[in-house]
């Protein structure tokens, strides 16, 4: 009988791409992978592109919404959990359900808890997201990408594992030094857009200041 793991979560690339790295490694070890995500998340497109079976539930985020929108979002949760329970029952027996964070993981992890399926959380951030903080007490293991995140789970089964990385990362060839030097900006989640827009300009300003000081000293 084949082994099977369900990955639950998504919404944004910061949750999806680590999950895809986990899925790729599991498949390399002859483990069947199924994904549970949200219709409105990027996983609807990114996961399907990689030929991973996916079940999408009608679910959306709650934070940063008006009270009426938050109520509407919460009202979708029972239906999403019901769909997730039915999906997990069809896929049994399961080794585990792995939550990769984001609002899209809520229904899948809740369904796994109701069915007694072992659950693992993957927390990519140094400051855990509120969904993982909510689900952590009900999970069997929490895998933290940063050591600082362990502080958020002092009495739980949390381990510092590092973040899953796609193998493609290690296949990028070395780049020869450039003049002027190139700046690689890494970031994600809520600050990705702001950093991409403002940091290049800030760096250019700092570079101009350095050149000015050199001229003054000369």
Structure description:
- The structure is a single chain.
- The protein has 218 residues and is of the alpha/beta class.
- The protein has 2 domains: 3-170, Rossmann fold, CATH 3.40.50; 173-217, no CATH class.
- It contains 7 helices and 7 strands, in the order E-H-E-H-E-H-H-E-H-E-H-E-E-H.
- It has helices at residues 13-28, 43-49, 67-75, 77-91, 106-115, 130-135, 192-217, and strands spanning 3-8, 31-38, 54-57, 96-99, 119-123, 141-144, 158-160.
- The protein has a 7-stranded parallel sheet, with helices on both faces.
- Helix 1 (13-28) links the parallel strand 1 (3-8) and strand 2.
- Helix 4 crosses helix 5.
- It is globular, with a radius of gyration of 21 Å.
- 32% of the residues are buried.
